[in-house]
From TrEMBL:
InterPro entries: AB_hydrolase_3 (IPR013094), AB_hydrolase_fold (IPR029058), Carboxylest/Gibb_receptor (IPR050466). It comes from the Eukaryota. GO terms for molecular function: hydrolase activity. This is Alpha/beta hydrolase fold-3 domain-containing protein. Signal peptide: none annotated. Belongs to the 'GDXG' lipolytic enzyme family. Residues 76-198 form the Alpha/beta hydrolase fold-3 domain.
Length: 304
């Protein structure tokens, strides 16, 4: 009896996605869509913007209360996690988190909606992430495409942030901004939360999504230590956040040690949350450890 190609699985990465012989992709978890607008709990107003009509890359911007129309706020540019293949900047999970962060730190936050693997093979997510940051920089003369960035974002105080795969992307953008000497923006902080980097073993999951990668530690996207541009990382200070029970904790620890020992001239801080798992602040909204974690992020963002 002939096998039905619509049901035959050729690749299965539990927790992320399955690939069927006919090319169909099925994710284990799909993101919801939460429309932008006013968040009644924080008073933060969000709006969606189109970054590229060619690629369809979008971003969601979260604005604090604008009591003084002439005031400018630091801008946090965020890259969401999800193993490069799941998650959305337009979901409820990130709307809640980034609204809270914008409110407590009194900043503008902006999350890039990059295209997902495996439909869009890596390094497309990296390219989209960089394009999103270049879009931010295009506002440096006050004549960019988005009025609220022109009028209210202080591009001399920019923070890059991300969790899991998003932390990997944020690091990549910070390095590339320094290596290319991107004008118009000054990155002051890099917030790395529960990061996804590589190990000494071949990461078959990453290699499937990025066929041009070896999937191992000779790829600078997986191992910052071998990146010839690492010392050009553009910011003054890095905070590495890990969780005690996170299956990726060792990768966060390794990243912290690399940044401490590589000779980079900025400051590197470390924060560990005990008895918590990967990205608990997004998946376990009732955790009593969320408030201390966000306070740590806020203090880091505000640190002079």
């Amino acid at each position: 009896m002939a096998t039905d190609s619509s049901s035959e699985i050729t690749h299965d990465f539990p927790g992320f996605f399955k690939v069927y012989k006919d090319g169909r992709i099925e994710r284990y978890m799909n993101s919801d869509f939460s429309p932008p607008g006013l968040d009644p709990e924080t008073g933060i107003h969000s709006k969606d913007v189109l970054i590229s009509s060619t690629t369809g890359v979008k971003a969601r911007i979260f604005l604090p209360k604008l009591a003084d129309p002439s005031r400018k706020f630091p801008l946090l540019v965020h890259y969401h996690g999800g193993g490069f293949c799941m998650g959305s900047a337009l979901s409820t999970r990130f709307k809640n988190f980034l609204s809270a962060l914008a409110s407590q730190a009194n900043i503008i936050t902006m999350s890039i909606e990059y295209r997902l693997a495996p439909e869009h093979k890596l390094p497309i997510a990296y390219d989209d992430s960089w394009e999103g940051f270049q879009w931010v920089a295009s506002h440096s003369n006050g004549q960019g495409p988005e009025p609220c960035i022109n009028e209210h974002a202080d591009l001399g105080r920019v923070i890059l942030a991300g969790e899991s795969a998003g932390a990997n992307l944020a690091h990549y953008v910070a390095v590339k901004a320094g290596a290319t000497q991107l004008p118009g923006v000054n990155i002051t902080r890099l917030l790395i939360v529960h990061p996804y980097f590589g190990t000494q073993q071949v990461d078959k999951f990453y290699k499937y999504m990025c066929p041009t990668s070896s999937g191992s530690n000779d790829d600078p996207r997986l191992n910052p230590e071998v990146d010839p541009d690492l010392m050009k990382l553009k910011c003054d200070r890095v905070l590495v956040c890990v969780a005690e029970r996170d299956f990726l904790k060792s990768r966060g620890d390794s990243y912290y040690e690399i940044m401490k020992k590589c000779g980079w001239e900025g400051e590197v801080d470390y924060y560990e949350t005990k008895n918590e798992e990967h990205c608990f602040h997004l998946f376990n909204p009732k955790s009593e450890n969320i408030a201390p974690l966000i306070k740590t992020m806020v203090d880091f963002i505000k640190h002079d």
